[in-house]
Amino acid sequence: MQFVVRIEIKLKESILDPQGQAVRGGLTSLGYKNVVDVHVGKYLELLIEGSKEQDEVERQVEEMCQRLLANPVIEDYSFQVESAGGIG
Amino acid sequence: MQFVVRIEIKLKESILDPQGQAVRGGLTSLGYKNVVDVHVGKYLELLIEGSKEQDEVERQVEEMCQRLLANPVIEDYSFQVESAGGIG
Fold first, then answer.
1. Is the ipTM of this complex over 0.90?
2. How far apart are CA B2 and CA A31, in angstroms?
């Protein structure tokens, strides 16, 4: 089986996001004055292969986020696991 | 009306992604040997306010991606616009 995992990681609401502020400033100066808030984060796409079941893959991705991909102290993350077919 | 826009930006398939390779290497050395491919990109969340309709907001976000948020030469992007309520 193959799984495509899409992970979104962003700073927690309480953490200052200067990159988001800069993007918001850029959008405002281009005339998009109706953009009132911007958060910038990371997007990861993983391709996972093997004989695992979907719930097992979800547990593994949760662990990857905690151990390597995100910084749980300052970041929130969410992900979707989608089966991409292949020989099980 | 308020809209929450979630934008995922990643390098086109044909472009080398050394950051993704590095993350894959990190995951492999942590024992996640079933991760066969990793792509790293950007994730943006915008909060848009005003009297625009959803399709108008979508057109505007498409324009923002083309002009500022993404580099259409080397990056692909996709986004979802979601109504967050508020006084229309």
1. no
2. 18
Average pLDDT (B49-69) is 93
| Interface touch A47/B64, C-beta < 8 Å | no
Shortest CA distance from A61: residue in chain B: B32
Let me know: does B9 contact B75? Beta carbons within 8 Å. Answer: yes
- Looking at the domain B2-83, which fold is it? Mth169; Chain: A , (3.30.1280)
For B60, the closest chain A residue by CA position comes to A32
Radius of gyration of chain B (CA): 17
Contact B66, A73 (CB under 8 A): no
Q: How far apart are CA B7 and CA B87, in angstroms?
A: 24
Look up residue B65 and give its two tokens. 């991606």
Asked whether the beta carbons of A83 and A41 are under 8 A apart, the reply is no
* pLDDT one digit per residue (tens) for chain A, 88 residues: 899 999 999 999 999 999 999 999 999 999 999 999 999 999 999 999 987 899 999 999 999 999 999 999 999 999 999 998 765 4
Q: Which chain B residues contact residue A67 at CB under 8 A?
A: 30
Yes or no, beta carbons of B68 and A30 under 8 Å apart: yes
Residue B26 backbone phi and psi in degrees, to 5: -65, -45
- Tell me how crowded residue B39 is: count the other CB atoms within 10 A of its CB: 20
